[in-house]
Amino acid sequence: MTGYDIFAWIVLIILALQYGKDGSLTIYVSNASPGKDKESNWLPAPAAKCSLVARVYGPSKAAMTGQWKLPPLEPEK
Prior knowledge:
alpha+beta; two-stranded parallel sheet; 2 helices; 2 strands
């Protein structure tokens, strides 16, 4: 896979994400599918214990100074 192929794949994933009416983005991190209607926002994870790492690319000043923080993970209701 070339760098262009990886870029195109990432763009397709970003375009497929579904945002909330308020502009929020929910990502489902789980071993099992969250349901067909949520799979575009599903990040498959191992069934065993794992860690989650988030990166902020082109961060805002608020992210750089610590004024903005990644929201905490929440179990699905």
